[in-house]
Design brief:
mainly alpha, DNA polymerase, domain 1, 17 helices, 3 domains, hpI Integrase, Chain A, 6 strands, 3-stranded antiparallel beta sheet, 49% helix, elongated
Length: 398
């Protein structure tokens, strides 16, 4: 005797729940969102028919659309994968920083390109199996961190599609992130490594490194700095994070103030502090070129292997698969954070200076005053104090 779909009420709920068996024999319960017993039983019968029948995604969509119409009186929202991603990007553009939007757009294009003709299908046809296949392909192409960024991005987009009523569930919810076996963790620079970088860098990159150490800010934000961002009377640098939009006011360390005073001054406050870096990040909206330049500085300082211009047979080189590195310009943020924490500066003060979003700070509405931040900044060592030692490091074996 075959199993017949039934309905039941749960304690505390006014709705009937459909009880039926799926094709794999699993018994499930789904709310019908109905208070009328007869209509609830009809929906339960339909649920079972759909669950146990071998039907295509398009047929399932028609059945679901019929159910949706009977329950709500409206038509089921319908959109393709491509059109939803495009509309999602358009919606996000005024809500996010330029760099974040560029990141989202790149992830969307990569996924849609991989889908190919399937991107024109209804969003509801996108399955967990599709996402797992995409994860596999990406894991063969890029490092685990980049793969995981893509998965998190897809989770976010599809969760919005669920909230918009386009899909009933988020198929990316159960797609796990890639393990980072063999991937080195990021670490801060040592002071000797920083001095070694300063010794081989040109004037502009030397300045960027010094700003990175003494402000803890991201490369893109430092490249965009103009003289208007400096308040030498208040002894502060003021900027807005391109990633979070957060307004940052950072006291100038003694070494950074001395460095700024050594720079050629500009009559126009809109003039950039680092003209070549400013032009690069303004033109492309990204820091890829600057990151490559910094890698070459690390290679010159013998802190990273020299990259070949073309991919070799082992997959290395500039055109090969990107290899994770434990140090980059971003490591200066780790360096500044570590130095202040090691000096006993409270975590909340460090987070305020560096610009990390902190649940603890938000929850407690902690306000960090200027004098507290100046004390924290003064705890940073002066890597520019002994120029002779800095230059001699090039001849020192490591």
């Amino acid at each position: 005797m075959g199993y017949v779909a039934s309905i039941r009420r749960k304690r505390g709920s006014k709705y009937w729940f459909a009880c039926f068996i799926q094709a794999d024999g699993t018994r499930v319960q789904r709310s019908t969102k109905e208070t009328d017993r007869k209509r609830a039983q009809n929906l339960a019968d339909t649920f079972e028919q759909v669950a146990r029948a071998r039907i295509t995604a398009r047929q399932a969509q028609r059945v679901i659309g019929d159910i949706f119409h009977r329950v709500s009186g409206d038509s089921l929202p319908s959109t393709s994968v491509c059109s939803y991603f495009e509309s999602w990007l358009a919606r996000k553009k005024p809500e996010t920083a330029d760099s974040t939007y560029i990141f989202y757009r790149g992830k969307a294009r990569r996924f849609l390109d991989w889908l190919g003709d399937r991107a024109a299908r209804e969003l509801i046809t996108l399955t967990r199996a599709n996402l797992l296949a995409f994860r596999t392909i990406e894991a063969e192409r890029v490092n685990p961190s980049t793969v995981n960024h893509a998965i998190k991005f897809l989770r976010m987009v599809l969760e919005d599609a669920k909230r918009d009523g386009i899909i009933p569930d988020n198929p990316a919810d159960t797609v796990k992130l890639v393990k980072r076996n063999g991937e080195r963790l990021r670490r801060p620079f040592t002071l000797q490594e920083i001095k070694r970088l300063i010794a081989v860098a040109n004037d502009e990159w030397r300045s960027l490194i010094v700003f990175g150490l003494y402000t803890g800010q991201r490369l893109g934000d430092l490249a965009r700095l103009t003289w208007a961002n400096l308040d030498l009377q208040q002894n502060e640098v003021r900027l807005s994070s391109s990633k979070t939009g957060r307004r940052q006011i950072i006291p100038l360390a003694v070494a950074l103030r001395r460095h700024i005073e050594s720079l050629p001054s500009a009559d126009d406050p809109a003039q950039p502090l680092h003209p070549r870096a400013f032009a690069s990040v303004t033109k492309s909206g990204k820091v890829g070129t600057l990151s490559r330049q910094f890698y070459e500085i690390m290679a010159s300082a013998a802190l990273a292997p020299v990259k070949k211009h073309r991919a070799s047979k082992d997959g290395t080189g500039r055109n090969g698969r990107r290899q994770p590195s434990e140090i980059s310009f971003h490591a200066l943020r780790h360096t500044a954070t570590s130095l202040m924490k090691n000096a006993g500066i409270p975590a909340a003060v460090v987070q305020d200076i560096i610009g990390h979003e902190s649940a603890a700070i938000s929850a407690n509405y902690t306000h960090i005053d200027a004098s507290t931040k100046r004390t924290a900044i003064s705890a940073l060592p002066d890597v520019l104090q002994d120029e002779t030692f800095t230059k001699s490091l090039l001849d020192t074996p490591f």
